[in-house]
Amino acid sequence: MSEEKSAVPAWEQRFRAARVSLPDWAEDAPDRALYVSNATGTYEVYAWDRATGTHRRVTDRPNGTTDAELSPDGDWVWWFDDHDGDEFGVWRRQPFAGGPDEEAVPGLAPSYSAGLALGRDGTVVVGRSTDEDGTTLHLRRPGAAEPVEIYRHEEYGGIGDLSHDATLLAIDHTEHGDAMHSALRVVRLTGDGVETVAELDEVTGRDEPRGVACLGFAPVEGDTRMLVAHQRTGRWEPMIWDVATGAETALPLRDEQGRELPGDVSAQWRPGARALLVEHEYEARSELFTYELATGRLTRLETPRGTVGGATARPDGTVEYLWSSAAEPSAVRSTAGAVVLRAPGPVPPGSVPVEDVWVDGPGGRVHALVQRPTTAGPGPYPTVFEVHGGPTHHDSDSFAAGPAAWLDHGFAVVRVNYRGSTGYGQAWTDALHERVGLIELEDIAAVREWAVASGLADPRRLVLTGGSWGGYLTLLGLGVQPDSWALGVAAVPVADYHTAYADEMEALKSLDRTLFGGTPEEVPERFTASSPLTYVEQVRVPVYISAGVNDPRCPIRQIENYVERLEQLDKPHEVYRYDAGHGSLVVEERIRQLRLEIDFVRRHLGVPGDSTGGAG
Q: Which of 250, 255, 365, 415, CA to CA, is 20 to 30 A from 67?
């Protein structure tokens, strides 16, 4: 290792090391692929010609680009062009081999994206979402100059999939007003209009709503079967729905020993539609299987213990997947045994494996992932409770540069999959209603109690931190549990829920109405009870907040309201504002933010050292 290389601390190396996403390939040109990489220091879209081995950067914008799709013939790269991370923009396209960008669907004003479907015959369906129009879908037939509107509803929805022959369109919608349990409608594209073919709605008339979602039409000409995710058994699992006949085919997914797979299960068609690629997620880890439709045989594909961050079945029969663990950085691997794609440059340093901890909480057993620093001696340690966002998401045994940085600096890291998290069954996810935020904090408190009692965490040096929903829970926790935490570090948080609802993008308004059971005007007491601003006077410890000035999810105005109140109350706090949206796609900006957070924590806790190296 060179002197220059060794001078860069391991935590910064992890951020600066190039990464790649799982490549997405063109349906009719499988040697043409797209992926996202930070190889230049900013996350951008790349085209990869696998036949020639050439890689080309497609986009080049100051604040990065991640949303892109290949046309089925592989001739065009479509990418979403927003303004500095505000997620409000239009689709553009560029030839796969390179050339000037052009507006992909002229005539459509900027909006939030509600999906994109590209047909093999040139048919295009664009999904849009705006505060004024709700969700609208627009169809452009081959040769047509302008798109036509084919769907409109005030509630949020989006494009599920376009059939292989571009005659049928699946729409995931929440017209019933429940954003956590979507319904499905399939329409036939007729000239410039549509006619409804089939409906699948698991919500209406049920005491316990169940959601359904489109996983994709069979990739075969004229095949009217659709793979659907459903919650009929209290978890996500797949079935096959023939939209022409209405026939539903359950998929009894049992392993070689005849045991049903626990946890959530998803699937995708393998080429030819005679088998499925099954993705099984359970207790913060995941694995892959092949399911043969003719025999019902489920065969496990060999993947290391950890997390599969995405997988795709190739026409040659192999499966490519993005894998990592908390200790080992990600790479795109193949069931053929090779690393398919690794970013250029050095592999980032590894980190510390996670330990699984189960704690009894008020709503059931809570799963937490724990990592201990290896260079700081025996505990108790200063401990960071890093709270995940979502809220319908979960922490997993996967590689993450942020927690690894805290470990390098001598902190233990605890991540809690509180009620509302995915991967533990529908009841666990759906428990997050009405007492929003307060429910999650009960689970975090139970794990905190274990961490202190077990000798892991020093109760005088406990840091509550997180981004997005995790940032929201951080600010709420500092006010609701003022004696539990020594510091709070919140990134892009909800801070004033009434104002956040007024300013946020429509998709999140829909989710909030579902979580709270109405709007702030209809159930103001619930929004008030769950708003960090309500409890700001009870905050007793220093607070650090970072915010993107273009953020459509946790908008800046509501954060400024909270900061203004901190100032009025003379509460110690620091604020960092940056010119991007809900997070940054620029590596140096991410490093700058984490360095500021580490400096803040060290100064206030009196932990020796600085943010440039490891623990002192």
A: 415
